Amino acid sequence: MVIKVCQPYHIVTVSPWPLLVSFNVMVIMSGMVKVFTSSNWVMSVCGFMGLIFCIIIWWRDVIRESMYQGCHNSFVISGLEFGMLLFILSEVFFFVSFFWAYFHFSLSPAMEMGALWPPTAVISFNAFSVPLLNTVILLASGVSVTWAHQNLLNNKNILFYYALMMTWVLGAYFLFLQGFEYLSAMFDISYSAYGSIFYMATGFHGFHVLVGSIFLMVIWLRAKQWHFSKAHHFGFEAAAWYWHFVDVVWLFLFTLVYWWGS
């Protein structure tokens, strides 16, 4: 008699995508080195296009495992949740480094910057204009994604679909306003430590909003295909967790960089 032991972990099949993703990331970084020396963007663009292709195919395989092959049982979902939480924790420390640098320079400004913060000749943004509007937009998007989650839990799939669409539309509007803000700025990234930290922190946050918006848009397209149910919707939960993280980081940026820092 053969006794079959149930494996509580998800044993992944042989896949070329992790290796190819790593290779394309290496191509992108090597291309960036060439940009600094010869202003040649061809290598970086090719690596980025290859990375996007690999990510799309890799996620397609994960969706197939979840939806059609039944690989994502409760044990697997627990592992995915833990992995997503660790990923968000790593992103938290990524932004902690920016805030650490910001306080290092702002609490004790160097004489080269006029012993002032913002430094001499830097005209900072008015926190209660576009930054405040962007704060309202992101808070509204946090409310809409929470509303979408509640609709899904209550089997209100149509409302879930439209609340999800509202969330990524608000994210796109946030990016539009941030681009307008950058175009109207009176300083750039070369304006002492203030410009470097401001554009690195807000720029990387904008990049995270872009990634989160694409994440939510993919989930929205999957919602059109009825991929989610009350009991099986970790893909949406991961996107919602990431979006709430983006919201919280912006609240710190608005309070400390735009308001207190100006």
Automatic annotation (TrEMBL):
<dbReference type="GO" id="GO:0004129">
    <property type="term" value="F:cytochrome-c oxidase activity"/>
</dbReference>
<comment type="similarity">
    <text>Belongs to the cytochrome c oxidase subunit 3 family.</text>
</comment>
<feature type="transmembrane region" description="Helical">
    <location>
        <begin position="197"/>
        <end position="221"/>
    </location>
</feature>
<dbReference type="GO" id="GO:0006123">
    <property type="term" value="P:mitochondrial electron transport, cytochrome c to oxygen"/>
</dbReference>
<feature type="transmembrane region" description="Helical">
    <location>
        <begin position="80"/>
        <end position="103"/>
    </location>
</feature>
<feature type="domain" description="Heme-copper oxidase subunit III family profile">
    <location>
        <begin position="5"/>
        <end position="262"/>
    </location>
</feature>
<feature type="transmembrane region" description="Helical">
    <location>
        <begin position="241"/>
        <end position="261"/>
    </location>
</feature>
<protein>
    <recommendedName>
        <fullName>Cytochrome c oxidase subunit 3</fullName>
    </recommendedName>
</protein>
<feature type="transmembrane region" description="Helical">
    <location>
        <begin position="159"/>
        <end position="177"/>
    </location>
</feature>
<dbReference type="GO" id="GO:0016020">
    <property type="term" value="C:membrane"/>
</dbReference>
<feature type="transmembrane region" description="Helical">
    <location>
        <begin position="123"/>
        <end position="147"/>
    </location>
</feature>
<dbReference type="InterPro" id="IPR035973">
    <property type="entry name" value="Cyt_c_oxidase_su3-like_sf"/>
</dbReference>
<dbReference type="InterPro" id="IPR013833">
    <property type="entry name" value="Cyt_c_oxidase_su3_a-hlx"/>
</dbReference>
<keyword id="KW-1278">Translocase</keyword>
<dbReference type="InterPro" id="IPR033945">
    <property type="entry name" value="Cyt_c_oxase_su3_dom"/>
</dbReference>
<keyword id="KW-0472">Membrane</keyword>
<keyword id="KW-0496">Mitochondrion</keyword>
<dbReference type="GO" id="GO:0005739">
    <property type="term" value="C:mitochondrion"/>
</dbReference>
<feature type="transmembrane region" description="Helical">
    <location>
        <begin position="39"/>
        <end position="59"/>
    </location>
</feature>
<comment type="function">
    <text>Component of the cytochrome c oxidase, the last enzyme in the mitochondrial electron transport chain which drives oxidative phosphorylation. The respiratory chain contains 3 multisubunit complexes succinate dehydrogenase (complex II, CII), ubiquinol-cytochrome c oxidoreductase (cytochrome b-c1 complex, complex III, CIII) and cytochrome c oxidase (complex IV, CIV), that cooperate to transfer electrons derived from NADH and succinate to molecular oxygen, creating an electrochemical gradient over the inner membrane that drives transmembrane transport and the ATP synthase.</text>
</comment>
<feature type="transmembrane region" description="Helical">
    <location>
        <begin position="12"/>
        <end position="33"/>
    </location>
</feature>
<dbReference type="InterPro" id="IPR024791">
    <property type="entry name" value="Cyt_c/ubiquinol_Oxase_su3"/>
</dbReference>
<dbReference type="Pfam" id="PF00510">
    <property type="entry name" value="COX3"/>
</dbReference>
<keyword id="KW-0812">Transmembrane</keyword>
<keyword id="KW-1133">Transmembrane helix</keyword>
<dbReference type="InterPro" id="IPR000298">
    <property type="entry name" value="Cyt_c_oxidase-like_su3"/>
</dbReference>
